[in-house]
Prior knowledge:
Blueprint: E1 20-29, E2 33-40, E3 43-51, E4 57-64, E5 68-74, E6 77-83, E7 87-94, E8 102-105, H1 108-136, H2 141-165, H3 185-199, H4 203-221, E9 235-237, E10 243-245, E11 253-259, H5 264-280, E12 285-291, H6 296-305, E13 312-314, H7 323-327, E14 335-339, E15 345-348, H8 352-363
Parallel strand pairs: 1-7, 11-12, 12-13
Antiparallel strand pairs: 1-4, 2-3, 2-5, 5-6, 7-8, 9-10, 11-14, 14-15
Amino acid sequence: xxxxxxxxxxxxxxxxxxxxxxxxxxxxxxxxxxxxxxxxxxxxxxxxxxxxxxxxxxxxxxxxxxxxxxxxxxxxxxxxxxxxxxxxxxxxxxxxxxxxxxxxxxxxxxxxxxxxxxxxxxxxxxxxxxxxxxxxxxxxxxxxxxxxxxxxxxxxxxxxxxxxxxxxxxxxxxxxxxxxxxxxxxxxxxxxxxxxxxxxxxxxxxxxxxxxxxxxxxxxxxxxxxxxxxxxxxxxxxxxxxxxxxxxxxxxxxxxxxxxxxxxxxxxxxxxxxxxxxxxxxxxxxxxxxxxxxxxxxxxxxxxxxxxxxxxxxxxxxxxxxxxxxxxxxxxxxxxxxxxxxxxxxxxxxxxxxxxxxxxxxxxx
Length: 365
């Protein structure tokens, strides 16, 4: 398994950040070239380099661009480290199996960082394996889901404990990979604010905080779609030109689905929506599909090809200027709003298994 964090976006601006001095020493037997590197545009940028001597001893000492998250590399293997000005600690290990066999001394935050990354990678490996097995043996869905539930709950408990035990630590950064900024905003905000308090001079954390501010502003702008609020009513032309309102469906559980024939992710999700409609329609579930198409024939062809069998297809064929989409401040599709029988919002942006679980909770099967 490759050790990589997608949240690490490190972009150094020449002359903007003050350089810092660091020193890492230790013993790497079976060693090769040793580096301190960062990642920019999915490529390694090497800042310090040395070689172990005949006994495996080495020292990396010098200046690097800024306090931040770095890669300590032995040949083509690497681990994550956190470096501040005047950081001085030791790393020992086996150069042939460095990712599995290494020891960091006097940098607890780097130790914790790698601990979480390794646990996260193992969990995601198990999740991907379960997903692949489910695709191959769909008839075993119940057994596979039951088996994976224990793994999921164990990892959830691990994350909860890790957050409690590492308050205000830079080691919390990889938790953002496992936190949904939309559906777990309170936790997301807690982690980001702790990272800013503990490592705010890191370019990576400055980037994370800027993303957080954008997310927070967008969430505040979308507060009218919070759970429990009444879904804004609107009118749109149906396929035959007659007008329908969202409120015409009051009394049913409605998935308001913004999509388009030209939207690949929307078309990929359509079979799942069809499957759920067939399962729950008799219980009072329906779909209202708002298309952001501008070509009517393409819209109609997609409805037929994807077998979207519900009758509530609407569009004013204004593309991104669709009046309902503007009212709901839709900036990307697919975008969904799940609405209860009273016309109140249950949740937004549910797709795939999340939508299935939401409907299962509502209808009890």
